[in-house]
Amino acid sequence: MKAKLISLLLTAVLILSTACACVAEEYIINDVDFSRMDDAQRDNPVFYEIFVGSFSDSDGDGTGDIRGIISRLDYLNDGDPLSGKSLGVEGIWLTPVFASPSYHKYDVTDYYTVDPAFGTNDDLEELVTLCHERGIRVILDLPVNHMSSRGSLFRNFINAHICHNPANKYYDLFTWIDASAGKVPAGRHFTRSPAAGIMYESNFSDDMPELNYDNPEVRTMMLDVARFWLDKGVDGFRFDAAKYIYYGDNAKSADFWAWYTGELKKVKPDVFTVAEVWDGDGVIMKYAGIMNCFNFTASQASGIIAETANKGDVNRFTAYTESCISSLKALRADAANVFFIANHDTDRAAGYLTVASGNMKTAATLYLLSPGTPFIYYGEEIGLRGSRGGANTDANRRLAMLWGDGDTVKDPVGTTYDASKQTPYAVSDLIAKDSSIYTHYKKLLMLRKANPEIASGEYHALKLSGTKLGGFTATLNGSAVAVLHNTTQRDMTVDLSEIEDLPCRVLTDSVGAGEAELTGTVLTVPGQTSVILR
User: Fold this and answer.
1) Active site residue: 276, 380, 407, 453, which one?
2) What distances in angstroms separate CA 428 from CA 144, 170, 377, 401, 452, one per listed residue?
3) Count of alpha carbons within 13 angstroms of residue 530, beta-carbon side
4) Largest Cα–Cα distance of the chain, in whole Å?
5) How confident is the model at residue 150 (pLDDT cuts 50, 70, 90)?
6) What pLDDT is recorded for position 501?
7) pLDDT band, residue 10 (cuts 50/70/90)
């Protein structure tokens, strides 16, 4: 028996071709009804990170904007899981959209106003409304650790110190020490302000002073910001630099987030929160009992996903995943594992995994066919490249999306990336090709929807010895699936009857470089291919 590789839908509708008029009235992947996806979509959606200024430009000024995102909703999710015309993401993470003097917007001057370069507050509310109509959640990147030194709040803070007025409500808005103190707290960075006679904390940049969360007014101020946007309909937030609220004090920072997220849940009980705690698992777990946290152990070139995709041992990967999930669930019943391979702060995965080697597709399969809430970085699905390089600039990691349809979005200020190293393919080149990296991503999201056990089921790593072939079972509401991965470049064979605790023996789908085959109980999985058993 050979798996059909979602071929029925790809035959019924040509993948997002502008000339396509053929739409299937009903579609089932190998007898698995799409209607079963609802719980998985609600509990463990697939998010798509958009670096707003680099995604899509609606007004021809070269800067991506919110109306550009609106124009691309059919690309992201057209609201019809049966159409086969969109990527199929279920959530969008927008990097900061607030008023700011920089291209990246992590140095906010006004949290209540969308930066004019990106549009208006009305544009953002329209985007949220349209996303909700399609079942897409929208979360905003909320950098609460620091603000911009160019904003009125910081100017008022400096003026209060120039006037030596401790009674001024701005006097302790930011963290500071007396300039005459001489010694700076270990590991922290402070910037001198000669006029005010102080040094203010600025661990990320001299232009980004850090707020003082020992001040109750600061806590109230930043809580009001989040409440404002929840009232506008956003579904939650990604919290930037979460462990730095109190630099070097994870316990105190975690206590802050427990208070903050607790207050947000009073406003919106199902608020979605995910934190950037860029550290090892030991530190991440200090926060994971409070809110979801990105899994940095698994990400980037040195992470276990890339290691496994590069002909690594799948059994090591699944054992790690099981251990991670077990630790998370012990902290919080609804905790989700948050896998990703790259984001706006890291080198792009297509640079070190590469599409040509097949490793990029394999890595995508490993993390998107895993439990929890995975995050795709925009352009990942077309093999977009970008790295800091010798210029050491993050702008090179945030390059313009390649649409191939005349979109005028440009690379951000400060970009030095060698254009000759960029992928030669745009969305328009890949979207109608069955073998493309884009189509691979879409197939993975379709399989994930059709098999909600993968996203939300009880996970158990299969224990296969003497082979790099590995996988897991996932059980949800009495229904089980098994997923097996072959990350090597050669065919691998396994007798399913010899695998302990394997309730699934029927091959339903395969995805990757080849087509799996089941003869009796003997399963043959081609190189760089994964299979689903029911």
Assistant:
1) 276
2) 38, 52, 18, 12, 30
3) 29
4) 84
5) very high
6) 86
7) very low
Nearest to 497 by CA among 475, 478, 516, 519: 519
Mean pLDDT of 345-352: 98
Query: Residues 282-317: pLDDT tens digits?
Result: 999 999 999 999 999 999 999 999 999 999 999 999
Q: Is the pLDDT of residue 9 over 80?
A: no
Which phi-psi region, left, alpha or beta, contains residue 54 (left: φ > 0; alpha: ψ -120 to 50)?
A: alpha
What CA–CA distance (Å, rounded) separates 112 from 229? Answer: 8
Average pLDDT score, the chain:
92
Question: In sequence order, what are the residues at sequence separation of 6 or more whose Cβ sits closer than 8 angstroms to the Cβ of residue 49?
Answer: 93, 95, 343, 344, 375, 376, 377, 378
- Within 10 Å of residue 112's Cβ, how many Cβ atoms? 12
Give me the sign of the Cα torsion angle 461, 463, 467, 473.
negative
* Token pair belonging to 501: 């605790």
Identify the pLDDT of residue 182.
74
Task: Give me Rg for the CA atoms of the chain.
Answer: 24
DSSP string, 363-391: HHHHHHTSSS--EEETTGGGT-----GGG
Q: Check residue 40 and give its pLDDT.
A: 46
- Which residue from 34, 69, 90 is spatially nearest to 372, judged by alpha carbons? 90
pLDDT for the residue numbered 12: 33
Active site residue 178: no
Strand partners, 533: 482, 507
Is 123 considered catalytic here? Answer: no
Mean pLDDT of 372-389: 97
Torsion of CA 436, 442, 445, 451, to 10 degrees: -90
CA 54 to chain centre: 16
- Looking at this protein, which amino acid is placed at residue 203? N
Closest CA to 409 of 71, 148, 84, 54: 54
Instruction: Indicate whether 82 pLDDT > 90.
Output: no
> Given CA atoms 205, 209, 214, 218 in this order, what sign does their dihedral have?
negative
- Which tokens belong to 265? 């849940």
Q: Is 310 exposed, middle or buried (0-12, 13-18, 19+ CB in 10 A)?
A: middle
Q: Mean pLDDT over residues 60-76, rounded?
A: 98
Q: Per-residue pLDDT averaged across 506-510, rounded?
A: 97
d(CA 251, CA 199) in angstroms, rounded, equals: 25
- Give the model's pLDDT for residue 260: 98
> How far apart (Å, rounded) are the C-alpha atoms in residues 305 and 365?
10
Q: Is the dihedral of CA 56, 61, 65, 70 positive or negative?
A: negative
Distance CA 359, CA 310 (A): 6
Rounded to the nearest 5 percent, the helix, strand and coil shares of the chain are 35, 20, 50
